[in-house]
Amino acid sequence: MSLALLFPGQGSQAVGMGVALSDAFASAREVFAEVDDALNQKLSALMKDGPEDQLTLTENAQPALMAVSVATARVLKVEFGFDVSSADFVAGHSLGEYSALAASGAISLADTARLLKLRGQAMQRAVPVGKGAMASLIGPKTDLALAEEAAKAGSAVGVCVVANDNNKGNVVISGDKAAVDLAIEKAKELGARAIPLNVSAPFHCPLMQPAADEMAAALAEATIHAPSATLIANVTARPEIDPETIRRLLVEQVTGRVRWRESMEWMATEGGVTRFVEVGSGKVLTGMAKRIASEAEALALNTPEELEAFAKSI
């Protein structure tokens, strides 16, 4: 049985995430303490008690979600004897790619926390609030071709591209607000529903180039090892293990498309994955996995009981 571990992205954060793990396991508390120390910030308190509007800020949500994912992986190893290296593949949605790399030993936990804090701040700085926008195109008629046609219509008045190809029926566009608004109208004409997203910046589009430049400088200084399980990268939707390639792709990822549907399809077909396990907060990727690779098993590990049941099943 081939196994892939999935690491969630922004939007999966919730006040109270990680608390059950922290209450139950010292190994989880150690991860949260290490992240707090690396950032010189009581991020664990914000995760536990909120307020939600502070946790949702990109610069807090990104390292917080990573911390929960890595704490989950650490508990699996220390308490239940399951190591990430036992998986055939790891993959993370946007910021989740950093979680996957931290959990698989490619980047240290402290470095990952600092990189994600910077990534969140840099993305926020890249575009003035209100200038950019993102929208989710959903519905049975929604696919990549429809989204690209809508984005092309929006491009008449500004930057507009497909940011996340999540699965058939769920594709996200990103760019200048006026361009995204125009693309929304086109998408509706084509038969999709369009939901403007409550985000602070237009992620994964060319407007993020200043953030990509900041991340290039920071990643140039970071130590990156080969991950203990093969990474399926957002930008290529293909296996990557070479540290220098991973470094380059993490920079490209800031402005590039998250090719999640293709990543999942590759793992399910070429990679032979029969079990997808979401490691961290929420169940967003589990839901996507069930839609993309319906033949495979998909489950999320959110509670101590779920971790124990998973470890026993291996």
User: Count of helical segments?
Assistant: 14
Q: Fraction of residues in helices?
A: 40-55%
The backbone outline, from C-alpha atoms, is globular
Largest beta sheet: strand ordering? 8-7-2-1-9-10
Order of helices and strands: EHHHHHEHHEHEEHEHEEHHEHEH
Q: What would you report as the Rg, rounded to the nearest angstrom?
A: 18 Å
- How big a fraction of the residues is strand? 15-25%
Main sheet record? 6 strands, mixed
Outline the low-pLDDT stretches: none
Quick take:
With 314 residues, the chain is α/β, with parallel strands linked by helices. The protein has helices at residues 19-24, 26-39, 43-49, 52-56, 58-80, 96-103, 109-126, 144-154, 177-189, 209-221, 243-255, 260-269, 284-292, 304-313, and strands at residues 2-7, 89-92, 132-138, 160-167, 170-176, 193-196, 230-232, 239-240, 273-279, 297-301.
Can you walk me through this structure?
The chain is of the alpha/beta class and 314 residues long. It contains 14 helices and ten strands. The strands form two sheets. It has a six-stranded mixed sheet with strand order 8-7-2-1-9-10, sandwiched between helices. Strands 4-5-3-6 form a four-stranded antiparallel sheet. A hairpin with a 2-residue loop joins strand 4 and strand 5 (170-176).
